[in-house]
Amino acid sequence: MSGIANHANTREPLVLAVDLGTSGCKTALIDLQGRVLGQEFEPVELHIIEGAGAEQNPEDWWRAFLITAARVLKTSGVDRSRVRAVCCSTQGECTVPVDRRGNALMNAMLWMDMRGGPMIQRRAGGTPSLSGYGLWKLQRWIRLTGGAPALSGKDPAGHMLYIKEELPHVYERTYKFLAALDFLNLRLTGNFVATHDSILTSWVTDYRQADRIAYHPALIQASGIDREKFPDLVACTDPIGSLLPSVAQELGLSAETTVIAGSIDTTAAAIGSGAIADSDPHLYIGTSSWLAAHVPHKRTDVFAGM
Length: 306
Fold this sequence. Notes:
Layout: H1 2-8, E1 14-20, E2 24-31, E3 36-43, E4 47-49, E5 53-56, H2 58-76, E6 83-90, E7 96-98, E8 108-109, H3 117-124, E9 129-130, E10 133-134, H4 135-145, H5 156-166, H6 168-173, E11 176-178, H7 180-189, E12 193-195, E13 205-206, E14 214-215, H8 217-223, E15 232-234, E16 239-242, H9 245-251, E17 258-264, H10 265-272, E18 281-285, E19 289-293
Parallel strand pairs: 1-6, 6-17, 12-15
Antiparallel strand pairs: 1-2, 2-3, 4-5, 5-8, 7-11, 9-10, 13-14, 16-17, 18-19
């Protein structure tokens, strides 16, 4: 606490940093040297649905953010005018259909939800076949994106098809499909956007040039989802707006506080691990786990599943 007290007396700008994982929301105050001045955690309930479903209520995400943000701002003792930016990192591969007012039309389908498996398998299949994929479809996905939809249905490509085929009343009312990160950014700013990494596993974007990531018409058509239901794209480092006045007022922050687009957890872990040189690997262990490394160019190994 002495470190927090010392920093409470300075005027250095601070960032309100949000980490929304599967187990709950962690919110921290961080200075420009990356030091954590305080942090709080609030759990979020997980709902297991019959038929390989896994959901969370997006309102629970937002409630957990507001609770943890209010706590850390209070317990840290810092002058709230020092908070100049908010930036989120969240669990990836979640899908939230929202209407034009930004209201969630159902619970979010999580990265472990497999109900869309049969739908994506039908759409991804074909002759000749390789590992369950139509060969020419697989070749196009790999060439443009570096990967392909999970045949388990565990990513937004499967989630959106499940909603379209099994919940058509929800699909028709859907203005945009958002990831967890996109949903938090919407509630913070009022803007419907997706980041270059939150959209990745919808498998509708061309990643061949890192500075020109964009939706690809053939991939949109292959997805089976209407183009207008995908949000505008932004880079993870882009400022996407300021805090909505209602949010700023509730947290006691300036309405001029900038919201940075942020990233999903895999991107954040790739940087936060410190293993940022080419080919340096990091191992992540949480509710899920993975082994990853930065590489100087796109590498895909179909037979190794990499």
